[in-house]
Amino acid sequence: MSIRRDERITFLFSEIEDSAALWQQNPYGMQKAMVVYDSIFHLALTRHGGTIFKTIASSTYAAFKTAQAALAAAIQVQKALAGVNWEDFPLKTGLILHSAECTRYDGEFIGAPVKRASHILAAVHGGQTLLSQATRSLLTTWPEPGLEFINLGEQRLEDLIQPETLYELVIPGLPTGFPPVKTLNNLPNNLPQQPDVLVGREQELEAVQRLLRKPEVRLVTFMGLGGTGKTRLSLQVGASLLTEFKDGVFFVDLSPARNPNQALVEISKALNLQEGGGGRLIENLKRFLYQRQMLLVLDNFEQVISAADLVNELLSAAPQLKILVTSRILLRLYGEHEFPVPPLALPNLYHLPPLEELRLYSAIDLFVQRAQLVQPDFELNQANASIVVNICAQLDGLPLAIELAAAKIKSLTPQALLDNLADRFGLLILTGGSTNRPLRQQTLRYAIEWGYDLLQEEEKLLFDRLGVFSGPFSLEAVEDICNRDFEAGRDTWLDAQEILTTLINSSFIKALDTEGGEDYPNMIMLDTLRGFAQERLEASGEYPAIRQAHLQYFMREVEMAEPHLNGPEQVRYLRLLEKEHPNLQAALDWGITSNDGQALKMALTLAGSLWRFWQVRGYLTEGRRWLESILQKIDESNQILQPAAMAKALHAAAVLASIQGDYQQAVGLYGRSLSLRRQMHDVAGITSSLNNLGIIALYQNDFDQATIFLEESLELRRNSGDKWGICNTLTNLANVALAQGDFTRAETFLEESLVLARELEDKRSIAICLYNLGNIALNYNNIPKAAASYYESFRLRLELGDKMGLTETIEGLAAIAGVEADPVGAAQLYGAALHLREELGAPFEPHDRPIYERFEGQARAQIGEDAFAAVLRQGREIPFEQLIQTITKRGSKLDPKFDLPR
């Protein structure tokens, strides 16, 4: 993909008048006419050096290097069209010319100049040619004599920003005397001028236009929290539909109104309607609207929600009236169409697209445009791109927040701005909005407080308490944590479900899509709102108690989930914990920082139950940090806690340390854990510690000691009938045999382990067995069996989100690629796996290294050191989604039905 900036271009845009109606009336005739039209248009472009870069319905967008060439092409097109014998099927085409410096991306011009030209095009009549002031000023010579340029004066366009001086081209011999151009100057409206062009929102605009064009749709409500840009979008919708409402589009700012009567007054004022002698204002308004085809835009309806009946009354009285409402609360009227206004589009933080593509995301484009208003030389570059993306993500893609943040670029570097925003209260002090805007749009705090003040007291109370959550939360969690009497003597029982519904309808929280088996959706609060709620919660005096309740709830949730992390339901519970990950982090943080003994005890239990989740999902460093902090805090405080909880946490810390190759620390932790478990006669715990001590002995190449530990563990597990434990230890004994080169013995252990794993429906254990069996098959040069084993293992590990497992399986698939004479593909996969290992901080396991070195060396030798190193680097940079597609493609060659879970 290529990008070129700052090219001086003259656009020639065309629009066929009434094309939709012509296609509907006579499709065959229109098809014939279009052949002639296209021929004429393309001939003119070819002759004068123009290029078509976009076609939208009946509009064609072309670009020329000079204004003179574009003008010559326009004259040729209009003359040729006028000379055609259309046989009662004339095509009237409006043309416009506009010049500007533009950016071209992948052959298509993008940005504000293209939008400006399209808005000029919306003003032209069929057969007419219009020029902007920019183009007219470039025309020093004319392609033929007799041309006239009639100055039409400053015209307000659909984009609602500063007016544009337009000129009408008069070509000798062609029709003149067109009606007034279709601009805001000449159509009934009161739409206010805007300081800046609307950025993004193309999809929303098209969707709302389609909705309002439906005869049966008469009431649309834009829903969204403060700062999402509901007002600006509603104005743009109104401007874009001006020609479709013969009696106009009128904007009504309801922010001064506090009751239905005041709302009625504001609507009447916007329509310049005075109360007649002795008449009631409502009756005069209904008479005025009765036969008018009009669109009313009612802004900020949430504060006069009791005026919903007034809207219903007006719609009933005026059959051609349509109403577009912006609100944080639904009107709940029959026939109301809710239209949520989402935040602006953001790229994936973890897989950023190329630099030249970033401004295709409207949140990033808005930031850059607004930053350039205060610092004209500001540019997105390799040094600041990821910082800007992080800023916009931290601001939830909210247009108001992004505009306020971008205004700080004059005094702060992007990194300094991001650092300031990292403090959640930094989100609330964003100021510096334009003083010609309403106060609620000048700071983010005012925007939030504006809606907050409209809530009832119980709604405010629950909203404040929701600030305890990080990430998504469920109805059950809210009822358990937030619906308590935290202040003695105060009855704070709340109807949580009812209030949550109100907060969703008021755009303070968002309902997420439900998953299988859920009766009520999970919810989430944007970070900008959470900072506000947390600030109020901390000031309320309830903060310590509600944080304690939050920790207690999630400790119980994890204790409930832990047994299911092995067995048939492990995928479901791993996903559940992943969803709760931010809340789990917040709960652990409180347990450590609160200096409360009971909180520390709960944090110990919580962390000790999370190790399998941390292991599978690759949060190794994070898990170690939490566990080590808790254990250190306990040691420093000389607290005596339950031996079982201590033993479990020590074991968990040891597992994560051993995976990251910190064997010395792991042995010490296992030793402390095993000592406690022997004191408690905890057979299951003892066998687990012995098993894992055997693994460390294996990693340290002490195969005899590894075998002793593992065989003792296996005997105890067989005696106790622990099928999962037997399966696990058999796999580890197989790894010892593999490390010793005894593939026959390893295969025997693995086959027994695989039978148990399938019986238990434990996908992770199945995947581990298959991976190891793949290694054995590869060693025996049984490539089909090895490939089948690796691919099934990969499928299961992807479903589980098992990052460590995915890493080693990718290495197996890389070996297959090399054996199948694709050393380049092998190098790419080896690079991807190497990147994952570095990300996890996970070294090679001893039993895997010989196979890895053998087959990686073969691929390296096939293409040479330099080429292998280059492709390896490419593999390290491949986005994860692209990696999955590559593996799926390879798997399909093995089995046409092969696919991976998404």
The count of helical stretches stands at 38
Query: How many β-strand runs?
Result: 15
Helix/sheet category? alpha/beta
Radius of gyration over alpha carbons? 34 Å
CATH fold-level topology of the domain at 3-182 = Alpha-Beta Plaits
For CATH, the homologous superfamily of the domain at 3-182 is named as Nucleotide cyclase, GGDEF domain
Please identify, by name, the CATH architecture of the domain at 3-182.
2-Layer Sandwich
| Inertia-based shape | globular
Low-confidence stretches: none
Distance between the termini: 27 Å
Notes on the structure:
- The protein is of the alpha/beta class and about 900 residues long.
- Among the domains are: about 180 residues, Alpha-Beta Plaits, CATH 3.30.70; about 140 residues, Rossmann fold (3-Layer(aba) Sandwich); about 90 residues; about 80 residues, Arc Repressor Mutant, subunit A (Orthogonal Bundle); about 120 residues, no CATH class.
- The protein contains 38 helices and 15 strands.
- Strands 1, 2, 3, 4, 5, 6, 7 and 8 form an eight-stranded mixed beta sheet that branches.
- Helix 11 packs parallel to helix 13, helix 20 crosses helix 22 and helix 29 packs antiparallel against helix 30.
- The longest helix is centred in the first third of the chain and has 22 residues.
Chart the SSEs and their pairings.
Elements: E1 3-16, H1 19-25, H2 27-48, E2 51-56, E3 59-64, H3 67-82, E4 93-105, E5 108-110, H4 112-121, E6 129-132, H5 133-138, E7 148-155, E8 164-170, H6 202-213, E9 219-223, H7 230-240, E10 249-253, H8 260-270, H9 281-289, E11 294-299, H10 308-317, E12 321-327, E13 336-340, H11 362-374, H12 385-394, H13 399-406, H14 414-422, H15 444-452, H16 457-465, H17 475-481, H18 496-505, E14 510-511, E15 523-524, H19 527-540, H20 543-561, H21 570-579, H22 581-593, H23 597-609, H24 611-617, H25 620-637, H26 643-659, H27 663-680, H28 683-699, H29 703-720, H30 723-739, H31 743-760, H32 763-779, H33 783-800, H34 803-819, H35 823-840, H36 849-863, H37 865-877, H38 880-894
Parallel strand pairs: 4-6, 9-12, 9-13, 10-11, 11-12
Antiparallel strand pairs: 1-3, 1-4, 2-3, 4-5, 6-8, 7-8, 14-15
Helix pairs in contact: 1-2, 2-3, 6-7, 11-13, 12-14, 16-18, 20-22, 20-23, 22-23, 22-25, 23-25, 23-26, 24-26, 25-26, 26-27, 26-28, 27-28, 28-29, 28-30, 29-30, 30-31, 30-32, 31-32, 32-33, 32-34, 33-34, 34-35, 34-36, 35-36, 35-37, 36-37
